[in-house]
Amino acid sequence: MDATSLQLLAESGIDGTLHRARQLTPAMLHEADLVLGMEKSHVAAMIQLAPEIRGKVYLLDKWLNENDIPDPYRQERIAFEYVHEMITKGVDSWQLYL
Fold first, then answer.
1. Residue 91, domain CATH
2. Exposure string over 1-16, b if 16+ CB within 10 A, otherwise e
3. Which of 37, 54, 56, 84 is 20–30 Å from 44 (CA)?
4. Which pLDDT band holds residue 86 (cuts at 50, 70, 90)?
5. Which residue range is the domain that position 21 belongs to?
6. Taking a C-beta distance cutoff of 8 angstroms, is the pair 60, 98 a contact?
7. Cα 64 from chain centroid?
8. What is the CA radius of gyration of the chain?
9. What are the tens digits of pLDDT across the range 2-61?
10. pLDDT score recorded for residue 78
11. How far apart are CA 58 and CA 34, in angstroms?
């Protein structure tokens, strides 16, 4: 995970040091009850990978503005802060439906 992401998480009381990225597989999608993508292209790619999971894959920003949440990789901290805020709002908006 990017150092800036780790720092922002730590400032929010979250330890992200154990996180490890993995390649998404159809099995992962089948096992999940709900899958949230950051960008519309992510949602489309997941549905293409396993079309039968269409009904449980959504955009994280679905209940707000249905905007893509950009990847701040290799950008300044302010971009990471902006994305962190978007993710937080997106997660909060889903809590009503879980």
1. 3.40.50.2300
2. eeebbeebbeeeeeee
3. 84
4. very high
5. 3-97
6. no
7. 14
8. 14
9. 999 999 999 999 999 999 999 999 999 999 999 999 999 999 999 999 999 999 999 999
10. 97
11. 8
